[in-house]
């Protein structure tokens, strides 16, 4: 809960310093932490909190590997939000425009999800010109699409989009070539319309700071090992 007391001030607002310590060695730009509840903090909230200068504590109402995957997902990003890309396998077809949801494109991977190498991309605008929409996406996808590393900051990715005059760009993990996120020009305009961000919460490795809840039972030692490995 955050409570503000309105009052007259005799100093400029940009001189206000709300930096705080989460622990003895972890400093935050804003004194805000999101709760380790399964309805509150998973990867998306952890990313948003770290981008703003706070921190998210990911819940443990899940299996140890699932919690660790939330940690890895959040720490692999430097964009202040998580999108929800659409995936297909090469043999799939796209029968309706509804399959694009709100995305400008569909990504094609071996597995049909983010957990395998990106093979190609189908732009919504290209699909709309097709005469045979029952054909597998492998027949008409754009192979080897332009991408950027997932550790690009928002400004780096936005500058790349502008320089290449692209409508969207996939962000790819350098470790395993998996699709981490999708950034569009609409996202860039939306984010630049936000109030100015403070300093993000970053670790010594340059990645977002993310917290994780853990219990005190004997079996939680295994969970702890997975969390530490996840960063």
From TrEMBL:
<keyword id="KW-0560">Oxidoreductase</keyword>
<dbReference type="GO" id="GO:0003938">
    <property type="term" value="F:IMP dehydrogenase activity"/>
</dbReference>
<dbReference type="InterPro" id="IPR046342">
    <property type="entry name" value="CBS_dom_sf"/>
</dbReference>
<dbReference type="GO" id="GO:0006183">
    <property type="term" value="P:GTP biosynthetic process"/>
</dbReference>
<protein>
    <submittedName>
        <fullName>Inosine monophosphate dehydrogenase</fullName>
    </submittedName>
</protein>
<dbReference type="GO" id="GO:0046872">
    <property type="term" value="F:metal ion binding"/>
</dbReference>
<comment type="similarity">
    <text>Belongs to the IMPDH/GMPR family.</text>
</comment>
<dbReference type="InterPro" id="IPR005990">
    <property type="entry name" value="IMP_DH"/>
</dbReference>
<dbReference type="InterPro" id="IPR013785">
    <property type="entry name" value="Aldolase_TIM"/>
</dbReference>
<feature type="domain" description="CBS">
    <location>
        <begin position="141"/>
        <end position="201"/>
    </location>
</feature>
<dbReference type="Pfam" id="PF00571">
    <property type="entry name" value="CBS"/>
</dbReference>
<dbReference type="InterPro" id="IPR001093">
    <property type="entry name" value="IMP_DH_GMPRt"/>
</dbReference>
<dbReference type="InterPro" id="IPR000644">
    <property type="entry name" value="CBS_dom"/>
</dbReference>
<dbReference type="GO" id="GO:0005737">
    <property type="term" value="C:cytoplasm"/>
</dbReference>
<dbReference type="Pfam" id="PF00478">
    <property type="entry name" value="IMPDH"/>
</dbReference>
<keyword id="KW-0129">CBS domain</keyword>
<keyword id="KW-0479">Metal-binding</keyword>
């Amino acid at each position: 809960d955050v409570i503000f007391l309105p009052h007259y001030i005799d100093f400029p607002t940009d001189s206000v310093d709300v930096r705080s310590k989460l622990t003895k060695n972890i400093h935050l730009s804003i004194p805000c932490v999101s709760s380790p509840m399964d309805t509150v903090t998973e990867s998306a909230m952890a990313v948003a909190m770290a981008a703003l200068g706070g921190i998210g504590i990911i819940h443990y109402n899940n299996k140890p590997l699932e919690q660790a995957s939330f940690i890895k997902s959040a720490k692999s990003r430097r964009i202040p939000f998580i999108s929800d890309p659409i995936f297909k396998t090469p043999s799939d077809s796209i029968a309706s425009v509804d399959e694009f949801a709100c995305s400008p494109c569909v990504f094609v991977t071996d597995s049909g999800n983010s957990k395998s190498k990106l093979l190609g991309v189908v732009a919504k605008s290209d699909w709309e010109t097709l005469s045979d929409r029952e054909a597998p996406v492998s027949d008409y996808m754009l192979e080897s699409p332009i991408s950027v590393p997932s550790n690009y900051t928002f400004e780096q990715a936005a500058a790349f989009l502008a320089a290449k005059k692209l409508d969207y760009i996939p962000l790819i993990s350098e470790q395993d070539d998996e699709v981490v996120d999708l950034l569009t020009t609409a996202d860039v305009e939306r984010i630049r319309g936000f109030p100015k961000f403070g300093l993000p919460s970053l670790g010594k490795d340059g990645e977002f700071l993310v917290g994780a809840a853990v219990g005190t039972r004997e079996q939680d030692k295994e969970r702890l090992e997975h969390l530490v490995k996840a960063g």
